[in-house]
Amino acid sequence: MIRLVLLISALLLSGCDDHSWNNPYPSQFAAANVLYTAFTSQPQHLDPAISYDQVEWQFIAQIYEPILQYNYLLRPYVLEPATATQLPLVSYDATTNITTYKITIKPNIMYQPHPALALTTDGKYYYHNLTLKQAKSYETITDFEHTGSRELLAADYVNQIKRLADPRLNSPVFGFLSPYILGMKELRSELAAAYAAKSTVTALDLRAFELLGAKVIDAYNYEIKIHGKYAQFIYWLEMLFFAPVPWEATVFYAQSGMADHNLSLDTYPIGTGAYYLTENNPQRRMLLLKNPNFHDEYYPSIGMPEDQANGLLVNAGKKLPFLDKVVLSLEKENVPYWDKFLQGYYDRSGIGTDNFNSALQGSGSNGLHLSPALQNKGVKLLVSNRLAVFYWGFNMLDDLVGGYSERARNLREAISLAFDVEEYNIIFYNDRSILANGPIPPGILGYQDPVQIMDPNVNLATAKRLLAAAGYPEGHDSTSGKPLQIYFDAVTSGEPDEKSEFGWLQKQFAKLGINLVIRATDANRYAEKIRNGTQQMFFYGWNADYPDPENFLFLFYGPNSKVHGDSINITNYNNPKFNNLFEKMKAMGDDPARQALIYEMVALLRYDCPWIWGFFPQTFVLSNPWNTPNKPSGVALNTVKYASLDPILRQKLQLAWNKPLLWPLFAFVVIFIIIIAPAVVGYINSTRATVRRIK
Known about the structure:
By secondary structure, the chain is of the alpha+beta class. The chain has 23 helices and 20 strands. Strands 11, 14, 15, 16, 17, 18, 19 and 20 form an eight-stranded mixed β-sheet that branches. The chain is globular and about 105 Å long.
């Protein structure tokens, strides 16, 4: 019996090593220099010509390198060279009304290891002439035995600009950029004709096509030409749409059979950035590895006055990146994500609605602080204003809610006043957003503090007067007597909170006697409605591409209409006076005259009411104590290379936070022995007696 007890005890104690029993990661990685975090929605596109989504850019911004980037520490945001030797040289020719950007890139920047660049000993590409059977034998990018690299060239940047005109890719920024970049519309027509002539071709080698507005000068120099003056164009050169893509990638992925296993630039990018993607399983896990070919880049040594005190200069001057690997796991639900963060198995976490009250105390974004439990664990809180806006929009082409008549304007303003956005912020965002009084968020020239919130009852009384003036007293058509009905288009997610949010929306309209019909649909159908202008009302958000008011005001510029220009103005707002002011404003420097012009433009928007002014979101990020401080950015996304952590401290705290509770097991063993011991002893004695009788 003693032997049995010792055996069970030994088995129990065998698990008490230096690795927590509930650790979801292999024990050999416990002390590895790896960042563990999560993503909550699956990326659809990783091709820099197609992707225009915040979730997707969090991945590919670590992989691709445009010529420019934002300084990690300086505020206001400052552009600096990334792969370029200096900021572009800009010249304007008044005779031709053309602005030229001359760009020089650094030599000796190498691509990540990739099979598209693999060469045989005689200089031929290993994988550019695969048979269909061969191509189908590869299921993931790691199945290719050979990889290669080569130097980054100016031609790779020009190749990507041409890709923005490719009709097969249907880049979301073509409609916006094509009026600027010389020859872009003509190139699209030429490519469309080439595809029509070669119906079996899935992608064209763009080296055979010229683009007037993007020319290679030599190996390290190229130039971009745009129509007119557009001061904000330099910001576009920091965006991933202008990152380099080598021609070899197009040829490699265009081979027959590749698509059968979803092998493409949309799934496995190729870049020169600090990390590269080796595992793409968006339903489970994404894996980024440190790029062994990454060029020399160093953590900044100069920051803002408070950065030194906040520990942000501890790595000053050190070579980037610091992490060897980044493991991102899909977490669709907040509860497991939050629990793993508390256990120390995720290094960082946002704060979901379900966990907000247990994580933070106080009220309002300025009065919030960490709960004592998190403070005791050494967790750090970072709060930052996102350069983003969320709003409820009207389709200005719609016969009922659109147009510029007094009737239509009164209707939109009445609905806007009935919306209790403050209540929405409290219920659905835990009172952690800034209420909007226009489209421009804090931190951008032209932002105005919201006026004092009026009494909801006063707003409602005004709204009812405006609704009657629009011809709908108490929500009924004054001519027919029929109740007013408005349609709200939304992407359905199936989340539990969705019904509550739809119910809240209907309640806002019911205040005016209006019947709101929710038309829930999938993302593809929703995008089609936006593209065709068949939506009536909708909810949308915009994250800044760059820190300039033009990046928010161009959402209302008439020529940027989604329906008529295939661009980014999805309300299809088109006020000639606003358009004229916009064209003046975008060419001006940041001075009081420009600010005054912006205020005038926002006043026009408030009068016309194409949006119900929503809110500017804030980001709340929690970091476990082994992370070195990091600085949130409203625009830069390539910031993983600046992150570092102490894996030894992480391992120590994981063990401390996840000690197994063994006494119930020992108690069970003791009780088990007490109960079963008499039976075992009786059985043994009986067996011995039987043996003696036989003898």
